[in-house]
Write the structure tokens for this entry.
Amino acid sequence: MSEIVWLPRERHGLEAIGSTALSDAKVDATCLRRACSERLAQTSVDETLIFGAVTYLANSFIALHEKAPRTAALFASQQRWFLCHAALAQHFGKACEGSPGLTRRSLGKLAVHYQIASRNTAFAFFDEILKYGIIEQTDRRDIAVPSRETLALLKRWYEFHFRALDMMDGGQRCGWFLARSEQLVAKLSPVVGKKLLEQTEVRSPGHYCAIFTDGDAGGLIMDRLAATADWPGTPEQKHYLTEITAIAELARLTGLSRAHTSRKLAASERLGGTGWSGARGRSRLWISREFLIQYAETQLQKLTILNEALEDVGADGGAIKAESGKARIA
């Protein structure tokens, strides 16, 4: 059976590996943003477990979107996803200093500093999330904080990722997180947000993924493809059938127009990332192995950041110990 071998973080070289390594059944995990902290890095993880965890994440994102489509849609394009994490990092970072909250001006500065968006785009985003109750004004009208519903969804987001990590190595991160989630969300968000915004590998997905990350709800399209693909299959298999059989169906599931969905798929088809088993739009849609690998790499890079952040926070409280490749409650 194919397996992915996690190697120590001291080794480098994302650019030297690319997507072909996973196609050859093994990958230097450090090449996926030094793909996990030492606890995972020294654990041999079967490829099936990784694909299972990635599929679980894709299905979890879909469920989150169905439960709260307006809020989840904010995470469905890369620019908005980064603006959300910048806002959360700012709010919780200030909370640690005793003055929680986010201002329109501070989000604009962060957007420009991290080259996420223009100041005006950030201002428009702030106004939008305030309008729809994702953030709420405080007694000081220039300061806003995340709503109760937003914080509940954020907790679920962390829960999904820690459960996915546990699926790969049998750890207990998720249970440890859930036992003290309010405290940990506040501690983790500034660290996670900063790492996500600063790491080039997270900011620059592979060319197949980039087609979708730049557009509205592009992330949801990829989630649908990954969640329904009949993978992992074999390393020799070049593409995998999904359950999608019509462009209109995919558009409906993601809340996009049929025209927009068709344009995104057409761009992907030209690169060989997706295709149709028969007539276009009237047969089962397939996704290439290389595209799935890029999607998995993106999730692994994110999981690496979350894993390291949880260990850092746990180390501060002396609560987590690395033991036999698993996170255990001390």
